[in-house]
Amino acid sequence: MRRYQADPLPPIAAVYAAVTGRSIAGVSPRIDGSVVVSCPSERHNDRHPSCAVNVKKNVFYCRSCGVGGGVLDLPIVAGLSRNRRESAQLLRERGLL
Prior knowledge:
Largest sheet: 4 strands, antiparallel
Radius of gyration: 13 Å
CATH topology: DNA Primase, Chain A
Number of helices: 3
């Protein structure tokens, strides 16, 4: 069986900024390494930040609507891609992967 070297995943903070147009730079992380921001989901109009982006683990989770995942799931949640393959292609096009 042939194995291949997978591309390293970009930081979730960079993907969040590229997908939502909002940077999390300057937001103080909590002790667990997460930053609370607005939910990236297209189905959730988040007026009060409820989504925890953990920059140490490279994951996110919205405590309000329950969506979450990793770097490749963010574009799917935001409605920019339908699957992880399309997410990877989108991140490549934006120079993140």
